[in-house]
Amino acid sequence: MMAFPVERVRDTKILVIGDIMLDRYWFGEVERISPEAPVPVVRVARREDRLGGAANVARNIVALGAQAVLMGLVGADEAGERVVALAGQEGIDARMVVTPSIHTTLKMRVLGRQQQLLRVDFEELPENGCLDALMGAAEAALADADIVVLSDYAKGCLARVQEVIALCRSAGVPVLVDPKGHDYARYRGATIITPNRLEMSQAVGAWKDEDDLERRAQALRAELELEALLITRSEQGMTLFTDQGRHHIDAQAHEVFDVSGAGDTVLATLAVSRGAGLDWQTSVAWANRAGGIVVGKLGTSVVTAGELS
């Protein structure tokens, strides 16, 4: 495989729109069981906040050396302020719509001896007024984007995803979508969608074999007017479907430690590679390599251009 195009990547500008989250980690030691209930008592020794969701996609894009503009919704709260601060520290051009009507999506994880014991989620669906503001800001930001990434975690930010895709098509900007749910008609007109194995089966039903999968995938691609469709299949690797047919690449992970955020890394690497002018097959190969690296790390993490090379 050719060398990762670091020079071209530096000039690539990627607009990321989607559900923004704060991933909060509390690390500690477990030495006893609570006398109040049969649960472990965690004595917290360290706390760490990381960007999650669409913000983690942007974080991975910057780590690979490209430029990222991040747009989404956050609340007027401590978690929202933390997201903005972390984005600035990572070198992300954060253009968040801040609204007092919702709380920032927060996923809090409690770990004992590097083992996740509990996750607590805080989330709310946004109102139409927030989405109006986001749509206006997104349209303005499209002028400077080489490629657009839509990161859908079903938290409501992309409730009007069809309008966003239409804006991208009108501007002639390729749009990559990480989908959610089973109604993929809402992603019609995107350049590529990247469902995982479970999401694909929810969209097209269970397949009997690889030939059956190819028939279903190509039918979905044609129906949605996609240039490409990429299925991420965990330990089975990735399978790309285009006009040229099926292209499969085996997984490269040596050790799977934590799959949190792996899809974000794959999506970011695919966008960066494609934005730098690589073809789909080469872009998928780099995305596959990045996914294999990131699952060996704890929590939502990034892969750098140096690690890829």
Automatic annotation (TrEMBL):
Q: Which domain of life is it from?
A: Bacteria
Q: Name one Pfam family in it.
A: PfkB
Which PROSITE patterns does UniProt cross-reference here?
Answer: PFKB_KINASES_1
Q: Which Gene3D superfamilies match?
A: 3.40.1190.20
InterPro entries in the record: Carboh/pur_kinase_PfkB_CS, PfkB_dom, RfaE_dom_I, Ribokinase-like
Record's keyword annotation contains Lipid biosynthesis: no
List the CDD domains hit by this protein, alphabetically.
RfaE_like
Carbohydrate kinase PfkB domain: from which residue to which, for each copy?
A: 12-301
What keywords are annotated for this sequence in UniProt? Answer: Kinase, Transferase
Q: Does the keyword Transferase apply?
A: yes
What's one GO MF term for it? kinase activity
What NCBIfam families does its record include? rfaE_dom_I
Q: What is this protein called?
A: D-glycero-beta-D-manno-heptose-7-phosphate kinase
